[in-house]
Write a structure and sequence with these properties.
The protein is mainly alpha-helical. It is built from 16 helices and eleven strands. The relative contact order is 0.13. The model has no long low-confidence stretch (mean pLDDT 95). Bound molecules: (2R)-2-(alpha-D-glucopyranosyloxy)-3-hydroxypropanoic acid. (2R)-2-(alpha-D-glucopyranosyloxy)-3-hydroxypropanoic acid is lined by residues 30, 35, 39, 41-42, 77, 169, 172, 174, 198. (2R)-2-(alpha-D-glucopyranosyloxy)-3-hydroxypropanoic acid binds at residues 30, 35, 39, 41-42, 77, 169, 172, 174, 198.
Length: 426
């Protein structure tokens, strides 16, 4: 066996071990210490890797999330494991989802995460169409996904068709500079100490600050006590390019799913609307998409990897401009380790603070897929190989320093393993 195939085998084996260790019988936790429950967009990314190991388990991963869907169609960002109540804050008692008539019979959070689920569902189906057909996977998933997208389209999009987030956690890129000014304008109404079990498992200097946590919690209280109503009075409402790009991509995929199971489809039109709406977030000077604050009215003019995410849309007209930004000094494709989460040249860049600079494997995966589908095969392969190397060298870190590849955050992180596995399995 050559050295190259030996290391490929090692990588595959190590990825599978992480996924095995974090499997909880129906779903996979992102990390056994820091994140002991099921997370929404994590599960979709994890299923994309799991399909190479067990298509059936990948289906269960998504189905267990779907079983936590609220009556209004939202997929909650966390589904709690009651046995780990004190190990993550805010826990189930804080969200009090059982007080809402709209919720499933077990505890969840009440906010959402970016909609990558339909895309994951389709990829899982394609991994083993026979097993999928035998279990009626698509037939059962489609109504869930339809209700989820219905919720997003009717309750969570601005008139132009962009997804509106009501909490930084909804972005999945929690302390990105996009949210700095809008979050600072939110009143911190929390009193007393805020429990931070997360700081046992990750370096406090890398995680969001207590001041940010105070505002995170006060937003949850406000949304919760208002009955989870998506009104326009809410103090944090932002249009986000990453969630909107994933919605558009997922609508394209829902069209495929609908066709496969013989249903009519409103999805192409919705994909088109969301893609067209992204143009209102284009920043010519920065060469990428940005976020817009609907409360304070300001454009959040930062280069972040979220602003490159529309590359995943096949019909995007800005592809060449976005690729120039990706290859330039801000993101240094091919020179940085994977893709930094924030502009390497910005004053706000930090190499180890969570979503303010470090490279994350899920974002690298999105960019690698976009490069591959657009025909930039050498760059796609190189980025995929870099993901594998960085995953193994960092013990499957949550995020890595884009200059050195040094590990940060928690280790043995599930989507790091799943997405490195997906790239190596092709
Ligand atoms: C809050 C689980 C989640 C990811 C997010 C990531 C981080 C949670 C936290 O971990 O967020 O949802 O406690 O920081 O930012 O993208 O889904 O892995």
């Amino acid at each position: 066996m050559s050295a190259a195939s030996g290391s490929r085998t090692d990588l595959i084996g190590a990825c599978i071990t992480v996924l095995e260790q974090n499997w909880r019988g129906r779903y996979t936790v992102p990390a056994s210490g820091l994140y002991p429950h099921q997370w929404s967009w994590d599960s979709a990314f994890i299923a994309i890797g799991l399909r190479h190991v067990s298509p059936r388990r990948a289906q269960q991963e998504l189905e267990s999330l779907f079983s936590a869907q609220w009556a209004d169609g939202r997929l909650p960002h966390i589904v709690f494991d009651a046995g780990r109540n004190d190990d993550y804050s805010p826990g189930a008692d804080f969200w009090r989802s059982a007080d809402s008539a709209s919720t499933p019979p077990f505890p969840t959070s009440g906010i959402i995460q970016p909609p990558n689920h339909a895309w994951a569902t389709w990829l899982v189906h394609l991994a083993d169409p026979d097993e999928s057909a035998r279990r009626g996977f698509l037939e059962r998933a489609y109504p869930r996904l339809l209700a989820w997208h219905e919720y997003l389209s009717t309750r969570r999009t601005s008139p132009s068709g962009l997804i509106v987030l009501r909490h930084p956690w909804e972005s999945g890129t929690d302390n990105s500079p996009f949210w700095d000014a809008p979050l600072a304008a939110v009143d911190d109404t929390t009193d007393g100490d805020i429990p931070r079990p997360d700081l046992i498992h990750a370096d406090p200097s890398e995680r969001p600050s207590n001041a940010e946590y105070g505002r995170y919690l006060s937003l949850v209280v406000r949304y919760r006590d208002g009955g989870w109503i998506d009104d326009d009075e809410f103090p944090f409402r932002l249009e986000d390019p990453l969630a909107t790009a994933l919605l558009a991509r997922s609508e394209l995929v829902l069209h495929e799913i609908a066709r496969e199971i013989g249903q009519g489809s409103p999805h192409l039109e919705r994909a088109h609307t969301a893609t067209a709406a992204l143009e209102t977030l284009w920043d010519e000077d920065l060469g990428c998409y940005i976020a817009r604050d609907l409360v304070g009215g300001g454009l959040q003019r930062y280069r972040t990897v979220a602003g490159l995410a529309p590359l995943i849309l096949p019909s995007l007209t800005r592809r060449a401009e976005l690729l120039a930004t990706l290859r330039g000094d801000a993101f240094a494709l091919g020179r940085a380790v994977m893709v930094p989460s924030h502009d390497l040249t910005a004053a706000t860049f930090h190499p180890s603070r969570y979503w303010r600079g470090p490279s994350w494997f899920n974002m690298a995966w999105l960019i690698a897929v976009a490069l591959e589908e657009g025909g930039d095969l050498d760059e796609a392969r190189a980025l995929g190989a870099e993901m594998g190397r960085a995953a193994l060298a960092s013990d499957f870190a949550e995020y890595v320093d884009p200059h050195t590849g040094a590990a940060h955050g928690t280790r043995r992180f599930s989507w790091t393993a799943a997405l490195a596995l997906d790239r190596v399995c092709g």
